[in-house]
Amino acid sequence: MLELSFSNKHIEAGCDEAGRGCLAGPVFAAAVILPSDFENETLNDSKKLTENNRNILRKIIETESVAWAVASVDNILIDEINILNASFLAMHLAIDKLKKIPELLLIDGNRFKPYKKIPHQCIIKGDGKYLPIAAASILAKTYRDDFMKKVHQEYPQYNWKQNKGYPTVAHRRAIAINGITPLHRKTFNMNEQLKFEF
User: Is 25 helix (H, G, I), strand (E, B) or coil?
Assistant: First the structure.
């Protein structure tokens, strides 16, 4: 089982994002505060779990968490402020929505823009080390996947229900054939993406 707490002294919120490397759609982020007695041996980095397990764990997280929140930043704002800043903003927006104020933020990755006066700890691959970050990774991933499945109905030729906006061969081929949609990130160099072999 992953570690529940980094410090054992503070109310900690795990934070993670999903969709940073995508060509289309928003970036989503989540913040989760778990109870001090929380245990779950299945909970892990969302990328290491099946879709079915992620959906089961999402219900557990939403039911058992002290507090949780999900937020997103759309592709238009991503193009304006860049994906790194958009990821930080999405995390800030998620933290804003928490019904309990954390005393320490556990951030997946090696960089973060400080949130108000709350201290933070960046943890590389933290979603595979700490339960609160893993929980946040699952909420961010499942909420983003739901969004991409929904907009797939509008743009089925890009197969977003399958690739979720990531630069798969099929997605890049669809862009080459059909051009981009209003949901594509224009600052992600599409010409460079399309140079890759199909």
Answer: coil
| Residue in this structure with the two tokens 């933020």, named with its chain if needed | 105
The β-bridge relationship of strands 120-123 and 104-108 is parallel
Q: CB of 108 within 8 A of CB of 127?
A: yes
Q: How far is the C-alpha of 71 from the C-alpha of 73, rounded, in Å?
A: 7
Q: Please name the residue ranges forming H helices in 41-130.
A: 51-64, 75-81, 83-97
Q: Which two tokens stand for residue 12?
A: 């900690």
Residue 196 Cα distances to 58, 72, 188, angstroms: 35, 29, 14
Q: Give residue 196's pLDDT band: very low, low, confident or very high (50, 70, 90).
A: very low
End-to-end CA distance of the chain: 40
The pLDDT of residue 195 is above 80: no
Domains of the chain with CATH codes? 12-152 (3.30.420.10), 156-195 (no CATH)
pTM of the model: 0.94
Longest dimension (CA), the chain: 55
pLDDT, one tens digit per residue, over 32-61 is 999 999 999 999 999 999 999 999 999 999
For residues 59-83, average pLDDT: 97
